[in-house]
Amino acid sequence: MGRCFADLGRDVLSQRQTNRAHSKYSFLTMGKGGEKQEDPGTSSAPLAENVDGPRKDFHWDEGGEPHALRKAEILKAHPEIRELMGPDPMTKYQVFAVVAAQVAMAWWASRQSWRVLVPVAYLLGGAANCNLQLGMHEISHNLAFKFSTKRGMVLNRLLSLVANLPLGIPAAISFRKYHLEHHRYQGHDVVDVDVPCDWEGWFFRSPARKFLWCLLQPAFYALRPLATNPKPMLAWEAVNIVVQLAFDYAIFSLWGVKALVYLVAGTLLGMGVHPTAYHFISEHCVFVDGYETYSYYGPFLNAIMYNVGYHNEHHDFPNVPGSRLHRVKEIAPEFYDHLPSHDSWFTVYRDYIFREDINPFSRVKRAKLGLPPGPDADAPRAAAGYVNKTVDDMKAAVAANKAKKTTKAE
To answer: Rounded to 5 degrees, what are φ and ψ at 87?
Structure first.
């Protein structure tokens, strides 16, 4: 069956590649949203099609991650963005509301048949728990309470434990421990555990296996850090585990196994192939050669996911809460409007699974900190030919701003 699925995928890919010569890519836009887009054949950022078959290695970059550099340039041009920084006081209310709703749904699920419980856990529970996961993400950046004091830091950690409760699996503190390094050392070998392992790129190449890879995202996010970059357990992690187990036991004792299954299934199914889980792929998978971070500007999913779709904006300004990220793009459009972005969660999955040139190797990777590029010193292939177009486009935006100022002065 896997071979048949792979053959079907190759047939679909071949037909789509033929059609692309006379059509636009629906999953990706270049330039301002809503405008007629360029034909990919004339775009300054052509899609990263690999005519030689599936990728067999990462996109290795000798330079550093581009977001800190772009942040500095944006703040020079638009210092008013500093006013957007800082916590959003509404975050705690949203977290408590969704937690209460999920607890109520767990009680409801305890009274339902399995054939009702499972699809509801997938559709509704998956979306709600994704909202809470991204609430945890928001809180990991200390964007619920002011973090200038010890009290504020503690309140952020406690709220993350509350957001974690309906997930059924302790994750809030360990996620933060690794996620902050994903921002600071984006793509660096070993340190950034968001980047797939080599064996994932080697194994998950056919459409059937890539679909399986998408389904198994919960396992990869839980186990990859332990395998590639294990860290000592923090005191807050121990608290996270104890609190979560106590909550799970309370749910089980009060309403039985169905209530607990509803919560845990919502987490696991919602992180697999699910409308709200598209971002695991869309954020950093290289769909366009030279670009390593992508935004998604669809309105509905962003509304229930703390605007995580504004991912270029988030990596540039991780201290701006999701509720204000759209303002970053509005204030500094010259830095974002030309970047490739997604407009459909469905086509993110479709193209990831059926495009032969995309697989877990489709990520930008950098050397281990302090070491030469590539897996080892004898790997010149590691950095060969890669051009970071994000930096080039940022420089073009800076030059355009300078030209505008010169024109106004004249």
So the answer is: -65, 155
Q: Which of 86, 134, 139 is nearest to 327 (CA)?
A: 86
Q: How far apart are CA 381 and CA 59, in angstroms?
A: 10
* Helix, coil or strand: residue 364: strand
Q: Which tokens sit at 251?
A: 């749910």
Give residues with Cβ within 8 angstroms of 104, minimum separation 6: none
Q: Where are the beta strands (DSSP E) in 235-388?
A: 295-296, 340-342, 364-365
Judged by DSSP in three states, 28 sits in: strand
Closest by CA position to 292, among listed 106, 63, 101: 63
Strand partners, 28: 342
**Which amino acid, 59?**
H
Q: How confident is the model over 118-144, as a mean pLDDT?
A: 98
What pLDDT score was predicted for residue 299? Answer: 79
Long-range contacts of 54-58 (CB under 8 A, 24+ apart): 54/205, 54/356, 54/357, 54/359, 54/361, 55/201, 55/357, 55/358, 55/359, 55/361, 55/362, 56/201, 56/202, 56/361, 57/201, 57/361, 57/381, 57/382, 58/195, 58/201, 58/361, 58/363, 58/364, 58/365
Phi, psi dihedral angles at 262 (to 5 degrees) = -55, -45
410: number of Cβ within 10 Å: 5
**Three-state SS for 317?**
coil
Coil/strand/helix, residue 11: helix
Q: Kindly report the pTM of this predicted structure.
A: 0.85
List the chain domain ranges.
90-274
Describe the strand order of the beta sheet including 340-342 as a list of residue ranges: 28-30, 340-342, 295-296
**Residue 379 neighbours by CB under 8 Å, 6+ apart:** none
**181, 328 Cβ separation under 8 angstroms:** no
| pLDDT tens string 151-195 | 999 999 999 999 999 999 999 999 999 999 999 999 999 999 999
